[in-house]
Every structure is written in structure tokens, then in C-alpha cells.
Amino acid sequence: MEARVLVAALVATVTFAAAFAMPGGYKNEQGTAVLLKNAAFAVFVISDAIAMVLSTSALFMHFLCGRFGTRGQMEEDIKLYFSYGTSTLTISAIPAMVIAFFSGSYAVLTPSLWLAITTCFIGVALFFFIAYQARTVIRSIVLKY
């Protein structure tokens, strides 16, 4: 349980920091993002916000469950529900954070198109690798029973 809280806190911290360290920087006069009209930058901002909201929600749910749990008012099935909820939120926040990273990298690396495309390819390959590993684990569990 504590490891999940740590992961959610790290995702929230990283996405919070990424929101202020905008890819491409800021225009000094207006304080707006340089890449504001870039489509990849829009994907970065949206996926970063999604990751931030999901991970912060997971943290909130964890601490809410802990607060009620100390009073002895929550039954074990409700605690389990909160545990599944925080896990689901955190597991959903991680891909959003990865998408934010690769879309931000793409937005900044667009002048070097081959490097930008290579970076995105690595990100897509990561998702395929994770899906393959998940499929392998699920298959081994199903074959066991």
C-alpha cells in the first residue's frame, strides 16, 4: 500500500514540475509558452494535466481512507474498494505522464524531425512492451487455474 502512495506522489510531483518547466520555455514579455500553437505541445499540456489530476486523486483517496480507517468505521471491503481505486487512478496516471513526456519531447525536437520521430517511436515501443508483458503475466495466471 505504501509503495502505491509513493508512486502516486512521484507522478504528482513530476507532472507538477513539468507544468512549470514548459517545453520550449516562455516568452519573456507576455509570460506565455513559446510552443503555444504547437499541436504536440497541446497534447503535452492535456496529458500532463490528466496525470496530475489522476495521481492527486489517488493521493486524496488514500489519505481519506486512512483517516476513516483510524476511526474504525470502515469495513474491510470498503478499504479494499479504496485500495483498488487508488491503484486504478495511479495506473492510469502513469501512461498519461509518459505521453506528456514524449509529446513534450516531440514538440521541442520538431526542428530535428528524425530525432523527434525516433523519440516517439521509443515511446510507442514502450507501450507495446508493457502490453506484451501484461499479456504474458495474465496468460500465466490463467493457465495456472
Overall geometry: flat
State the distance separating the first and last CA atoms: 26 Å
Largest sheet: none
Overall pLDDT confidence: 84
Number of strands: 0
Structural class: mainly alpha
Helical residues, percent: over 70%
Sequence of secondary-structure elements: HHHH
Strand content: under 5%
Radius of gyration: 19 Å
Number of helices: 4
**Low-pLDDT runs:** none
Features:
0% strand, single chain, mainly alpha, 4 helices, 145 residues, flat
Describe the model.
This protein has 145 residues and is mainly alpha-helical. It is built from 4 helices and no strands. Helix 1 runs antiparallel to helix 2 and helix 2 packs antiparallel against helix 3. It is flat, with a radius of gyration of 19 Å.
List the SSEs and their pairings:
Blueprint: H1 2-20, H2 39-71, H3 76-109, H4 113-144
Helix pairs in contact: 1-2, 1-3, 2-3, 3-4
Provide a compact summary of the structure.
The protein is mainly alpha-helical and 145 residues long. It has helices at 2-20, 39-71, 76-109, 113-144. It is flat, with a radius of gyration of 19 Å.
